[in-house]
Amino acid sequence: MTSHWLNALTDLEARGVPAVLVTVAATEGSAPREAGTKMVVTPDDAIGTIGGGTLEFRAIDIARQMLAGKQGPSLRKFPLGPSMGQCCGGTVTLLFEPQRPDLFTIALFGAGHVGKAMVQVLSALPCKIRWFDPRPDAFPDHVPPGVEIEITNAPERDVAGLPDNAWLLIMSHSHALDLGIAAKALQENRFSFVGLIGSETKRARFVKRFRELGLDDAQLARLTCPIGIDGISGKHPGEIAIATAAQLLELREAQKQTLRVVDESAAE
Questions:
Q1: Are 151 and 136 in contact (CB under 8 A)?
Q2: Which of 43, 112, 170, 188 is the most buried (most CB within 10 A)?
Q3: Burial level of 29, CB count in 10 A (0-12/13-18/19+)?
Q4: Where would I find the H helices in 52-135?
């Protein structure tokens, strides 16, 4: 039985299908299934059962709402009273755990020495890398799997075409290009990370220009410059790449939502 839901999750992740793992975490009194029973819910299907009836229908509905709203895990307590049409008379606590494919998009602008080092480091992560530069000869002859080269003369338009929650790393060969890309990314206000290579001096200079372009404090606060975790001051491309990859992983971990506890008896 365990392998059934586990195999289902493995298959869904491989196909990029989000799901919620629903587990009977605890029971009090009479309940249709024992603690540990699991069900996998996708936007279009449900695999397994936690006992059927109104409890299961409500669990499926909650799971799909979580997927639509990109919510984090939660515990919910359900009294099996008359309002649910179940005469068990007990209480069931369900754990809802979203299982979204852990693949994220990194948009890397710049194919210089640091950009090349970034690709080598980031390609080891569960991510898709879109690598932008207007210079065809700047790219290496071979790139790791999962890296898509995009030769472009309109990087601001490319920013507009990126998916929501993408992670942007800006390190082109031109300060003017960096400025335009970063300004567009901050104006869009829909990305998980907007990182600009450079010093505190470069940041101050760019912030001044961003204000002249009409960006407000909230938008400017989303700019990360310099990039990389604290404590690594090396300027070698490899050092910058490793420090920046560590920063992205640290921020992704921090974005995970904490467990919420909801008592569904309030709806009784």
A1: yes
A2: 170
A3: exposed
A4: 53-69, 113-122
pLDDT for residue 99: 85
Q: Which candidate, 186, 191, 181, 187, places its Cα nearest to that of 156?
A: 181
User: Class of 104-254 per CATH?
Assistant: alpha beta
- Tell me the C-alpha distance between 207 and 213, whole Å: 10
Q: Would you state the pLDDT for residue 1? A: 42
pLDDT of 267: 54
Residue recorded with tokens 């939502």: 257
Could you give the CA distance from residue 111 to residue 132 in angstroms, rounded to a whole number? 7
Residue 84: pLDDT band (50, 70, 90) is low
What b-and-e string marks burial along 178-207, b requiring 16 or more CB atoms within 10 Å of the CB?
Answer: bbbbbbbbbbbeebbbbbbbbeeeebeebe
Amino acid at 203: R
Residue 171's SS3 state is coil
Contact 112, 171 (CB under 8 A): yes
Mean per-residue pLDDT of the chain: 89
- pLDDT computed for residue 12 by the predictor: 86
